[in-house]
Amino acid sequence: MKALVKKGKGVSNLRIQEVAIPEMGEKDVLIRVNAGAICGSDLHIMYDRFPTAIPVVIGHEFSGVIEEVGSGVKGCKRGDRVIAEATIETCGGCFYCKTGNSHVCRDRKYLGVMVDGAFAEYVKIPARLLHRMPEGMSFEEASLAEPASIAIHALIEDNRVEVGDFVAVLGSGSIGLLGAQIAKTVGAGKVLITGIEPDVPVRFKVAEELGVCDYIVNADKEDPVKVVREATGGIGADIVLDTTGSPHALGQAFEMVRRKGVIAALGYGEDTLEVPWNKMIREAIRIQFCLSSTSTSFEKFCSLVSQGRLKLRPLITEQYPLREWKKAFRSMERRESVKALLIP
């Protein structure tokens, strides 16, 4: 089969090549991939900014149809339309695995990072990680399940958006736009989303189309801290969801969050960051570092979709055949897309 493989260091070592169709274990399923979505981490892998196994088929956001079922698998069958969690392997015996937090197991192996992933014609997945696609959902929309589940985990499971909350979302990429929708659908009173000048043509247009953002702020031309303070009568945001990892954006988060508010940090950024320590203590601000998704966040995603409470199609701004992956990656890198899909 054809697959997008990271073979070694350097951009030139990410390329399409022929690889063997994965061999299944008795508790695995083989999935024919119908759509794969490009994540920012895939760009980091291309530039060697993210630790990976070498060689590895990359890609972890996908949907597809079960092609084969292992002899020990129950509860699913050939032809089922599915999505899957991306934490493929954990140790199973550590404190975190035993307490229902396997997504933070120190030995976890992530799809498309340490285990062969989904930018291929077929992908092998342990059956226990599967979730059936909601009725009426397209494969293209379903490929956004993983980033949506990450936002759900951050805003509903690790933290809880309350009815009437003012939620500020820093960053207008896919997780930011999904997070804005999720916050509004579970009761947020007002939602603000930020971006920078290159986001205006595409990402801000999508934010407007979604209809959930009360404030869309170009941080290159307007101070989002001032907007938040004015909109809340000087109190500040109840929850700030940072999807950027940018030191500048996080500096704004420290200034726009209210006393006893929460900064939910999702974005990877610099290894170290200056924190206004005394201010954070005086104002009793909580910083919640949020990692990955969970089985329950995938189930919540399926529930929200089934109820018609998430708009996914507007986020899919471009689609390419797998062989044109370079064009798709370039589009994402230039912020010309919210989500670019690869179709094997």
The helix count comes to 11
Given helix and strand content, the structural type is: alpha/beta
> What general outline do the C-alpha atoms trace?
globular
- Tell me the major beta sheet: 7 strands, mixed
Helix content: 25-40%
Supply the CATH architecture of the largest domain: Alpha-Beta Complex
Distance from first to last alpha carbon: 10 Å
Low-confidence stretches: none
**CATH class division of the largest domain:** Alpha Beta
Q: SSE order in H/E notation? A: EEEHEEEEHEEEHHEHEHEHEHEHEHEHE
What is the domain total for the residues? Answer: 2
Q: How many DSSP E strands?
A: 18
**CATH H-tier superfamily of the largest domain:** Medium-chain alcohol dehydrogenases, catalytic domain
Mean pLDDT: 97
What percentage of the residues does DSSP assign to strands (E)? Answer: 25-35%
What is the CATH fold-level name of the largest domain? Quinone Oxidoreductase, Chain A, domain 1
CA radius of gyration is 20 Å
Write the layout of secondary structure elements.
Blueprint: E1 2-6, E2 14-18, E3 28-37, H1 40-46, E4 56-57, E5 61-69, E6 81-84, E7 87-89, H2 95-98, E8 109-110, E9 122-126, E10 130-132, H3 139-142, H4 145-157, E11 166-170, H5 174-185, E12 190-195, H6 200-210, E13 215-218, H7 224-231, E14 237-242, H8 247-256, E15 257-265, H9 277-282, E16 286-289, H10 295-306, E17 316-321, H11 325-333, E18 339-343
Parallel strand pairs: 11-12, 11-14, 12-13, 14-15, 15-16, 17-18
Antiparallel strand pairs: 1-2, 1-4, 3-5, 3-9, 3-18, 5-6, 6-10, 7-8
